[in-house]
Every structure is written in structure tokens, then in C-alpha cells.
Design goal:
By secondary structure, the protein is mostly helical. The protein has ten helices and two strands. It is flat, with a radius of gyration of 21 Å.
């Protein structure tokens, strides 16, 4: 309804452009709130004579629900934001890059070392009741690559996101962020040594899974762009896992 709500005869589309931008911003705000649940911690302020813990991890069930929401509302192409009738009134291009930036930002925040380290610690305290880091990696892979596993040809938005996923795993495999922390609710900053945690080992395993997936997909697709994309993914992963 944005066109009907924001346009006035004799006026340009300035209001439509502004309100559409606000809509994209609100989408990012809401998805950010959901993302915070993954690896999240609830804090209940208490005096020392009050029973029970101050910090309690978000339940595994709620964290899984949050990841499922992100899969539907962020990693699936947000077609509801791509109404060409609307977009061609306010811009000549830019929708692909806008979606790429938004999806990549959320992906990188989700696969952030401090968040993943909290999942490792939560599992160490409660092995059966929490959301595991292995689940996070697998759920993200399924959300981003599930259609490739089913033999489908994906659109440009999905291909961009898949490249971003490979690049994020490369970052976890090869970089050591000096400022990575597990700060939560005002606690002191605790650096995460990615190279000495399970994060790097699991990132390497995920790259191996994606290499196999891309190889199978490239062998069956009849789409030239899709085959080139998957061959490129295989080449990037191969250079990471088997450098000369």
C-alpha cells in the first residue's frame, strides 16, 4: 500500500522513497532483535540475598525458533521488499546490493565469534538443554544452501548470500580478530581465541560440507550461471582447505 499511502497528484515520489527506506530499516531492527536471542542471555537483577542465578541462557527451544525465523525472514529472498512497480518509481537500480548488504550483515552478526563462544559455554554447562554450536552451523547451512541440496537453481540474491557465507567461514578459518569478545550485560570483556576454540574446527568442517554440496550441484544443473557459481565456490573452498 505504500504507493497509495504516500503519493499525491502533482508531487514527486520523495515521500515514497523516504517511507520505503524506513520500512527497510524497521525490517532490520526487528530481525536484529530476533538475532540477539541466538547465544543470548537473560539477566535478572538481584540482591545477594535473593535466590537463583542472575544470568540464564535463552532456552534452546527459543534459540532454535529464532534461527528458523531468520531463515524465513532474512536468508530467504525478501521478495516483499522487491516490488518492481514501487522500486522503479524511486530508483533506477540498487535493490540487489541493498538485499546483499542486509543479508550479509545479519549473517556475519550471527556467525560472530563472541556469540558462538557463548553457545560453546552454554553447552558445557547444560549439554542436553541448550542450542549447540554444531546446530547453529548446520541450521545456517540448511537455510542458505538447502535449495542447492535439492537440486534447485537459485536466484542472484541467494547466490550472493552463498558467497557471503563462504567468505564468513573463510574469515573464521583464517583471521584472529583482536577485539572479539564475549561481553554480555555489562560484564568484563573476555577475548575469544578463535584458533584455540571449536569455532575454527567447525568452520573448516562446514567448508568441507559446502565443497561436496557444490560439487554435486554443479554436476546436475543445466543452468550456466548456476554451474559457474558452484564451480567458483568449489575453487574458493579448495584454495582454503588445500592451499599450495
Amino acid at each position: 500500500n505504500l504507493i497509495a499511502w504516500t503519493t499525491t497528484p502533482g508531487e514527486d515520489y520523495g515521500d515514497l522513497r523516504e517511507i520505503y527506506g524506513e520500512l527497510v530499516g524497521i525490517w532490520g531492527l526487528y530481525t536484529g532483535h530476533v538475532l540477539a536471542l541466538v547465544g543470548g542471555v537473560n539477566q535478572t537483577l538481584k540482591a545477594s540475598d535473593q535466590a537463583g542465578p542472575v544470568f540464564v541462557p535463552v532456552s534452546g527451544e527459543r534459540q532454535r525458533a529464532a534461527l528458523a525465523f531468520l531463515g524465513r525472514e532474512v536468508f530467504a529472498t525478501p521478495s516483499w521488499l522487491l516490488d518492481q512497480d514501487l522500486l522503479r518509481r524511486i530508483e533506477h537500480g540498487g535493490s540487489i546490493e541493498r538485499v546483499r548488504q542486509a543479508q550479509t550483515a545479519r549473517l556475519n552478526q550471527l556467525l560472530e565469534p563472541g556469540r558462538m563462544q557463548r553457545l560453546i559455554e552454554q553447552e558445557a554447562f547444560d549439554p542436553r538443554g541448550t542450542y549447540r554450536l554444531t546446530e547453529l552451523f548446520d541450521d545456517v547451512r540448511q537455510a542458505i544452501w538447502g535449495d542447492v541440496a535439492r537440486g534447485a537453481t537459485v536466484d542472484v540474491y541467494r547466490r550472493n548470500l552463498q558467497r557471503a557465507h563462504v567468505e564468513r567461514l573463510e574469515y573464521l578459518l583464517t583471521q584472529e580478530p583482536a577485539t572479539t569478545t564475549t561481553q554480555v550485560a555489562g560484564l568484563a570483556r573476555n577475548p575469544v581465541d578463535v584458533s584455540q576454540s571449536d569455532i575454527r574446527a567447525l568452520a573448516r568442517a562446514q567448508l568441507g560440507e559446502l565443497e561436496t554440496l557444490a560439487q554435486r550441484g554443479a554436476a546436475v544443473t543445466a543452468d550456466r550461471v548456476m554451474r559457474a557459481h558452484l564451480n567458483d565456490v568449489m575453487a574458493k573452498i579448495g584454495a582454503l582447505l588445500r592451499p599450495r
